[in-house]
Every structure is written in C-alpha cells, then in structure tokens.
Target: Endoglucanase
Amino acid sequence: MSLKQNLVMIVVYTLLCVSERSMGLKHNYGDALSKSILFFEGQRSGKLPPTQRMSWRKDSGFEDGFQLDDDQFFDKVDLVGGYYDAGDNVKFNFPMAFSTTMLSWSVIEFGKLMGQEELKNALDAIAWATDYLLKSTNTPGLVFAQVGDPFGDHNCWERPEDMDTPRTAFFVSSDNPGSEVSAEIAAALASSSIAFRKFHHDVGYSQRLLQRAITVFEFADKYRGSYNDSLGPYVCPFYCDYSGYQDELVWGAAWLLRATKIPNYWNYIKQNIHNVKNFAEFGWDSKDAGINVLVSKLLVNNPASKPFNLNADKFVCAVLPESPLVSVSYSRGGLLFKTSGSNMQHATAYSFLFLVYAGYLNQANKKIDCGGGVIASSMRLKQLAKSQVDYILGSNPLSMSYMVGYGQKFPKRIHHRASSLPSIDQHSSQIDCKGGSFYFESQNPNPNLLLGAVVGGPNINDEYVDSRADFVHSEPTTYINAPLVGVLAFFKSYSS
Model:
C-alpha cells in the first residue's frame, strides 16, 4: 500500500472514529435548529418588532440611506433594516444576499422537517432580509451594495445602537456596474419567492419578490462588470469578488429558472455555464458547486443535466476524505478545512450541498465513482454531513460546542460588538467609538449571549482560543449559520 493510500486510510479511520463518538453523544438537533435561526435576530438592523425574542438587542440604523456616496443624485433613500453580516455594524449586501439565498434554500428543501414554529421563524428571518433587499433595489437603475464605512466601523468597538461612524450607502449603476452583488440579490429574491409561495401562502409578497428578481437580474446581465472596479476601496478587502461575477449570473438564472420554469433562463444557463469552472468551490464568493447541485436537482433523469451531474460528482469527490481526488483538508478530529478565514462556513455550506445532492442521488438511483475503488452513495454523503454538524455541536477533541448557547461548553468571548458590550438595559448612556475598548480587552465573558451564533471555529489542529481578538476563529457570520439551518432541520427529522 502506498504512502498516500495509508494517509487516506488514516483520515477515513479518524472520521469513522469521530462518527462513532458522535453516535454515542446524542445531539439535540431540534434545539440547535431553534438557536441557529434565533441567531439572526441578534444580527438585525432597523426598528425591531414586538416579537423580537433576543431582547438585549435594540433599534439601530434608523438613518441608513440618508447619506449616499454620490449626493448629486438623491437626498434620501430608505435603507433601514437588513442584517449586520458578522461581529461588526456594516451591512454588506453581497454576503447578506447569499445568506438569504441559503436560508431560502434551507426552507425550500427542508422546511417540512422544521416543525411549524421554526418554519415560521425561518420565514421571518428571510423576510427581514428580503424587505431590505427590496428597498436596496427600489431605485430604477441602481442597486445598493453596502451601508456603512467599514474602515470607520472597524476602528471602533461600539454597539449598533450607539454607532456614530459614517453610514454611507454605496451603490452600483449602469455606469459603475456590479453584476455579482446584483445577481446574488436576484438569486435571493427568486429563491425566497419560492419559499414564501410554498410555505407562507403569501402569493402577493412572493410575486413581488419574483418580479423584482427578474428586473434586478436583467440589470446585472445588461450592465456587466465587477463592483470591485468602482467600490473596491469600500468593499475590499472585506468582501472583494475574487472569483468573478460570471458564477453569480448563472446562479441567478438557475434560481429564476426554478422559480419561473421559463425556458429562456435554461437557455441562458447553457450559454454561460462554460464560464463556471470552479466545480469544487461554494460560498458567498463562489457559487459554482451550488449551481451544479441546484441544476441537477431541477433536471433529475433529464439527459440535459449530464454536464451538471458530472461536475457535481467531481465536487463530491473533491471533498470526500477517502477520495483519491480530495482537494480539501481535514483536522485529526474530522473537521473539513479550506484555506480562508471563518472556516466553519465551508463545513456548513458543503454539508448542505451534500444533503441536497444525496436527495438527488436517491431520486436518480445512482452512486458516484471517485476512482481507486471509492464509491460515494447517498448514505455516505449524509454521514459526512453529519460528522461536520456533530463536530460543530461538540463531538470533537475539545468536547466543545462551537454554537453559542448549545451544550455545556461553548465560546464565551466571541468577536461581536453587540454581544460583548452591555446592553442598553444595563448601560443606558452611549458608549462611544473608543469607549468599548475596555470591554473588547476584558477577559470576562460577553455579557449578552448571541444564542445560536456559530463562530469561525478551531484551527486545523482542533485547537481553539476563546479570544475576541482572534476574529478569524471567534467571529460568527450569517453565512455560517444560513446553510446550517437546513442541515439541522434534516438531522432533526432524520435522527428521530
């Protein structure tokens, strides 16, 4: 047996051992699901509703849209609402839209498994984003891409309720296009229209979302270009588009095809799919693997789906640890790793795709041949997804949950301004830009539990330092949680 084969067997054996430990440690997926959705209430911007459950958070961002990056066109635009993407107070619409798409896809695929209460909460979480995305696309010829100056914001440590840094609103237009952010917003609106049509029975709202998705997609496609070119000084290095905008255009068309069944979108996908080449990538920046899985599900047993199936199979073989084609890494404890910050985003997003594609494999009655005698079945995909979610919930070498508020041991000092500063209920006077530094540097646990927040996670050696300063590992994001909602819904039902 070669050295490479030996290493592969060691990795597989390790994962199987972790899986066996996980089976012995009974996880409450229903509780984790509830908390993973509740997390989004802690990220809300705007006027909070009477139904707000995370009560230590208060109203914020009331004047968003009053200060534009080009005042010659407008006086004010209503951009109140939406989500802060992570532990800061900026609204980055590119990752926000992706999180919305993934929340919607979670509901579309697994909403029936959530239970009535959590399905309603998930739809509320989607609506908080879509109401804002409708505002962001309400001005003809413009799509708003961001609210807040990230450099000013990152120089401060203050509650969103207190923030006094510039709340500049940045937009893309026909003269300064941003196809990636526009097309991702189109995908978010189209996918959410399906979720509301399927479960909420709000035909009017669903139709409004779909019509706006169509308009925004046309804008994204007609005026092609990256928002890096015009908004680079403000969106980079935070959410630069590193993979190009072509994947978002095909992704948006795929969701519009699913929402409308209009053949023109299928023609668009076929004509442009050659621009989507990173079959093993999926996340807020690269939609490639998601496109292939989504289209495969749309065209089960249709010969036209063959190239998408082949690339989705390649994705599986690039992630499966025992595959000779594996291109990702795994920690000794079994956590999937890729070279980037907030590593848990890969574990949750890839697990979601594995579960969706497992459903496709069942429908198509097929398995995947990765070569070297490795055959991937639907069950194997589910096992790998389960190993990732169980690791997150505490089946790991540290026996630590990486979801705040789940289990007995979880991160207490997460990199999150609102969570780490006393709430207005406890400290009514303003805490200014540098006034929060004392709390940031404190070794005390955060005073407010951001229930359900999943942090960036441990390093590849399964080590975790519970430190606010270590934002790569201790900061939660909406795009970590959004796909996890669907994964937890599946295992809530599957385990029972």
The first strand starts at residue 91 and ends at 92. The beta strands are 91-92, 142-147, 169-173, 329-330, 336-337, 368-371, 374-376. The chain is about 50% helix and 5% strand.
